[in-house]
Amino acid sequence: MDPRRSEEDIAEVKGKALHFETTTTAPLGISQEDADFLANFPDDHRKAILRKLDWRLVPFLALLYLVAYIDRANIGNAKIEGMTEDLNMEDTDYNVAVSIFFIPYILFEIPANTILARFKRPSYFIGALTVSWGIVMTLTGVVQNYGGLLATRFMLGVCEAGFFPGAIFIVGRWYLPSETQFRISLFYTSSAMAGAFSGLLAYAIAKMDGIAGVAGWRWIFILEGIASVVCGVACVFLLVDSPAHSTRWLTDEEIKFLELRQIVQHGNSMAARDAEKKRKWQILRSVLLDWKIYTMGLVFWGNTAPNYGLKFSMPQLITDMGFESADAQLLTIPPYTVGAISAMVSGMYSDRLTWRMPFICVPLVVVIIAYAVLFSQAADLANNIPQCYFALCLACAGLYPVTPGVSAWNINNLSGPTARAQGVGYMNAIGAVGGIIGSYMYLDRESPQYPTGYGLSFGFAALGIVSALFMEFIFKKKNRERDQMSEAEIYEKYTEEQLGKMGHRSPFFRFTL
Length: 513
Known about the structure:
Mean pLDDT is about 85; it is low at about 1-30. The chain has helices spanning about 5-20, 30-40, 45-80, 85, 95-100, 100-115, 120-140, 145-160, 165-175, 175-205, 215-240, 250-265, 270-275, 280-290, 290-320, 325-330, 335-355, 360-375, 385-400, 400-410, 415-440, 450-485, 485-495, 495-500. By secondary structure, it is an all-alpha fold. About 75% of the residues lie in helices and about 0% in strands. It has one domain: Growth Hormone, Chain: A. It is globular. The protein starts with 6 loop residues before the first helix and ends in an 11-residue tail after the last helix. It holds the Pfam family MFS_1. GO terms for molecular function: transmembrane transporter activity. It comes from Saxophila tyrrhenica. This is Major facilitator superfamily (MFS) profile domain-containing protein.
């Protein structure tokens, strides 16, 4: 049957079954029978499927992201437990060790996500990545010199590069735009909890100092690396891949519902999406030349530069307030907890409204306020500890909602598995450049005032706000232009085959604001 049905039929499919607003009107790539199936699918059953999916997918992604972030950022905990002294590190050696992680992380994000998109079982690929970075982390605990530390940090970047964009890609395979940010927020908050949990773990593990003749900071790397290996093995059995590979816990009817709503959302059939995979180099070229990806990367910088700077330096910042290293490890917990709560609340309301921009810009305004307080009070830190510690909590409250918001906004506005995989990978690669910048923002020679760190964090947050406002303006403009084209005009200008290949460039596609 011709998939080009009446506007009324399409509206019924959207409103009654799919509950999303930024979608295509044709060609949907499904039959009238499938459209009727979606339109008549019980709402309570739809909600039950999503609840079932939420419990299967999100907690395990959160666990994997927790161990990934702990392994990435625990170098800050190891630093105040004596790592720099034992490895004879001087001046900016620590900053170099932190930043070298991001070089392969940036270079391998697109290749890793492109490979992931070709896997029928992404759990195998993600599991292999997790095991590999766990092994590297364990080996970090036995390095004997600064060169060894640089080598393991570099390899950690190689192994972790594919995980976060891969997780975003997997979420996009299961959920619609109006459902994505809250789910991304749920597992991304584990990065905030990683900061809290890492401090707690480091506090406990550091007590093992001297056991078997091994320094406490080495035990931090060894034990946390072993935990990652265990999670990687479990990934093969616990991470859900796609509806088609979920027959153990989904019925045939539920699988059909989940697959059809994705087809309707992206406006092309499975055949068109399979054909897209064969054009991966053409799609990669279009992604690399898409200025919107670069602008979204600037929005991402508003978070990544100050966020990584704070994450790698928070234990040191709290130590500079006059606390002992053990107390400093514990005092990292409240700011990260505040950040986790903020991200979840922001994601929930952003999905409810399906509106990304304000839930990026408002948190970044909070970041600006936080760093303005830190900058103004840092000259007399000893007498301003309550204000400065509160500002650290405020900074986390503003920083942690931004990454889920940007990630959801980006994947909501890309269509097709290859374009999504490459677009998400590339945007994350651009954002990771902020991690390199963040690695050098807090210099030991500027302690405890850190004018460079606080000033750059302020500036990058402002850049993120301006870029997000600009992106929404452009998306609104493009949506208005597409609204002015009738369906008849579109079919006069394009064939079905051309429309199927256009993805988010299709005049039927509407951008999420």
